[in-house]
Design a protein that fits this description.
Number of helices: 16
CATH class of the largest domain: Alpha Beta
Radius of gyration: 28 Å
Number of domains: 3
Mean pLDDT: 90
CATH superfamily of the largest domain: HUPs
CATH architecture of the largest domain: 3-Layer(aba) Sandwich
Low-confidence stretches: 341-352
Strand order of the largest sheet: 4-3-9-10
RNA sequence: GGCGAUAUAGCCAAGUGGUAAGGCCGAGGUCUGCAAAACCUCUAUCCCCAGUUCGAUUCUGGGUGUCGCCUCCA
């Protein structure tokens, strides 16, 4: 049974889908006005794992993620560059996809944009005005009236009076209450605008997510997510205006999940503070899968400090998992290549029992892996089980290889089945956390791989000849030169193995 | 001022009312021409005080530190 931490109730709850076998998710996307930073990536990687988990469990998942493409910051950027707001938003939406694709984030089912949801937004505001939850000012601004909403503050757990209104920003005295927020903003010079019953203008910040989620997921849906800085005021306002418009205090999202921040030197990373790393910059130095792995090594609700040292650690840890993957695929390649006397009588009882123990362990770890994810998507714990399986695979691989060619030839058909099953389990784990997608493709599908493989065989054979002649200088030179082009040779007791750096 | 988190080994990070996963780094060892990888061994009484309990790191209260939200922000 899946348990999730719901911000709304501040507790872990059993997850019960609204509709059996289906999960509906709305995750707040980005305002595309500059390059996405690593902090932006965290919720999307988190939700990507959640989607993979549900899909693997057999749920039909509907995932919506918006682009807030009408916004002050976009307008500011457009005016500064003397281009249209659409040019800015298009450019950075493309940048968003470029970065997120590198992190193996699967695309949402729909990416609604504010500019394309204007009718729904306007009609929702109209409903709120009609129901008395909003008021219109003379200039065409429309505000949500928080005092009309008895439940206002239920998500963030704060009362209206507790907030230090005006502490840091001047209160707009045209508002009835300091916490009232804009639903519609009358157009100012040099701003894009759309026609509305209150004159030319554009939507306020929070209304778009309400309109979009209700439009695509209906009045009740399962999950709503985003960074924990969105709890107040963004999500608070969303839940308020949505439930007011619908007229049902239990409508809208049922489970609210919020991820913790990424910090730099333990201070919150943010674009406005200037202390951020863009995903693009990090990708120049580290593979996307490593960046992704770095993000999910920590539970999504915990804060996560980013630094060069941390990501290097993630790289090392990731390599460890990748080595085991290589080992098991290597074993399978050897079996498949027909080197092996499948079904031979030579298989020793020892080998059988070892493989049997391995698969037993693997099944148990897979079960623990799912248990971990069932507990509020504890990827950190789930990954630890993958490491345990990784070690078991390494031990088994070494045992087989150390027994030489005979050892491989002695793998019985039943043991071979076990090896395939272990590979499937390992890759199932990898698939859910979303790693080894690019690497596996290279091994399995890329036709060029075969060529490289053949070439490497020739190079290695030549080097082996040099080694047999104890011409260490030549042998080392070949290894060094290969390393320079990104190929690492490992001389092991069982022969030479190569891999990409 | 209000609200909310969090405090676990050198570092990162899970977790449980019955003395604590996993990763990184480090030390020693196996293997090895060297290197690398892999494997084995070693490294924590869980911020402080009080309480509940047979027993608390895990529950309660207090304290201290750190962080976040209350303004745009993932």
């Amino acid at each position: 049974m899946l348990k999730v931490y719901n911000t709304l109730t501040r507790s872990k709850q059993d997850f019960k889908p609204i509709e059996e076998g289906k999960v509906s998710i709305y995750c707040c996307g980005v305002t595309p006005y500059n390059e996405p930073h690593i902090g932006n990536a965290r919720p999307f990687v988190t939700w990507d794992v959640i989607r993979r988990y549900f899909t693997k469990k057999g749920y039909k998942v509907k995932y919506i993620q918006n682009f807030t493409d009408v916004d002050d910051k976009i307008i500011t950027a457009a005016n500064r560059e003397e281009v249209t707001w659409r040019e800015i938003s298009d450019r950075y939406i493309e940048a968003y996809f470029h970065s997120m694709d590198a992190l193996n984030i699967r695309h949402a089912d729909i990416y609604p944009r504010v500019s394309e949801t204007m009718d729904d937004i306007i009609s929702m505001i109209q409903t709120l005005v009609e129901k008395g939850f909003a008021y219109v000012l003379g200039n065409g601004d429309v505000f949500y009236d928080v005092t009309k909403d008895e439940q206002y503050g239920k998500l963030s757990g704060r009362k209206l009076d507790d907030n230090e209104a005006g502490a840091r920003i001047e209160v707009d005295d045209r508002k009835h209450h300091p916490m009232d927020f804009a639903l519609w903003k009358a157009a100012k010079p040099n701003e894009p605008f759309w026609p509305s019953p209150w004159g030319k203008g554009r939507p306020g910040w929070h209304i778009e997510c309400s309109a979009m989620s209700l439009k695509y997921l209906g009045k009740k849906f399962d999950f709503h997510g985003g960074g924990s800085d969105l709890i107040f005021p963004h999500h608070e306002n969303e839940i308020a205006q949505s439930q007011a418009a619908i007229g049902d205090d239990h409508s809208f999202a049922q489970y609210w999940l919020h991820n913790g921040f990424i910090t730099i030197d333990h201070e919150k990373m943010s674009k406005s503070a200037g202390n951020f790393f863009t995903v693009k910059d990090i990708l120049d130095k580290y593979p996307g899968e490593v960046v992704r792995f770095f993000l999910i090594q920590t539970h999504y609700r915990s804060p996560l400090d980013f630094s060069e040292e941390r990501i290097k650690e993630a790289q090392t840890a990731y390599n460890r998992l990748a080595t085991s993957k290589d080992y098991i695929f290597d074993l399978i390649r050897k079996m498949d290549s027909g080197n092996m006397d499948m079904g031979g009588q030579g298989s020793s009882a020892i080998t059988v029992s070892k493989a049997g123990g391995l698969v037993e362990m693997a099944e148990r770890l897979l079960s623990l892996f799912y248990d971990a994810l069932d507990d509020d998507f504890n990827t950190a714990l789930a990954i630890s089980h993958m490491f345990e399986l990784s070690k078991e695979i390494n031990i088994y691989y070494n045992e087989i290889m150390n027994s030489g060619v005979a050892g491989i030839n002695q793998i019985s058909e039943s043991d071979a089945k076990i090896i395939y099953r272990v590979r499937d389990i390992y890759m199932e784990m990898a698939d859910i956390i979303g790693i080894f997608e690019k690497a596996v493709k290279a091994v399995d599908e890329n036709a060029e791989f075969k060529l490289i493989d053949d070439l490497m065989e020739i190079i290695i054979a030549n080097r082996q000849a040099a080694r047999e002649a104890k011409n260490w200088a030549a042998a080392d030179e070949i290894r060094d030169k290969l390393k320079a082009v990104g190929i690492i040779l490992e001389d092991t007791a069982q022969g030479v193995r190569w891999k990409r750096a």
